[in-house]
Predict the structure.
Amino acid sequence: MTNRVFEYPVNRRRFLRSLAPLGAAARWAAAGELVPGGAPRTAMGIGEFSFSRSPHRDSPSAFLEYSNSLGASGVQMGLESLTDDDLERLRRRAEELEMAVEVDLELPKPDDSGEFERAVARAKRAGAVCLRSACLGGRRYETFQSLEEWKRFVAESREKIRRALPILEKNKIPLGLENHKDWTADELAALMKEFGNHLLGVCLDTGNNLALLDDPMEVVEALAPFAVTTHFKDMAVEESSDGFLLSEVPLGEGILDLRAIVKTLRDARPKVRINLEMITRDPLNIPCLTDRYWATFPDRNGRYLARTLELVRGHKPRRPLPRVTGLDPRARAALEESNVKSCLQYAREKLGLV
């Protein structure tokens, strides 16, 4: 089947919408067609960070088409390269494909001169259903060397959020802050309660907080009520000399209880979108046995460390953790695509995300 635009008449579109309870894959099947490109539709979007070497990330439009061909129901991506006309075309194309668009952007900078507001307006023009951001681009235990540095970051993050809220309210669009190896689950939940704004929520990453010694299911239970969107992933672990190694792996190959995570998300936020973030890379070292690691965790204690190391030691990886160092760009791109396809298939067949 060739990849083409489907121009359905109005009555047919109404028919497809009437089949919504069956799920996206069943709707396409009932209509007598597969997702363009032949892949069955999955009720899971794809985050752009699932790919680092793919030529399909050259433009947002290319990424939308590529994700559609894989059977994804939406995308989460940045829009920096698009003109106003491009944004309109992207919105129309996403509507034709019945795919959701979520937009990555940065929170307002201290010297912001309308940049954040322009970015939000561009996202609205592209038909975005929500926004995703993070307070920290790096990792807490690598970025900050002292508790004082961490406290400054917390104060700066609160100010960025305060600047963002009026713009979210003006545009009536929600934003999810990711637990990006910065906030513990308790800290991020407390931040949500502090601001108490229905347009400010969480982009719930199901694996990141292992790096902060949080229990994976406790993270989901604490943050699911605030979830605006998600980074859905599975994780594998392996003990190291100064802590442990942490890797994203294809769904079903790691240690997370993915069915329980989906149920918890759906119970708390039935309409929250589930987006795959399958990052194919070398394992991350979590140096939780070093003094530097603990510099910004005044409220963590040995219980968190003992619990996490027990989890690591009790879940030795089935196979060596994935590594990409030494792969040429073509081989790495092929591995990334294989991993994403495997995840989408698992989501359809094992998690009921159809």
User: Anything to note?
Assistant: The radius of gyration is 20 Å.
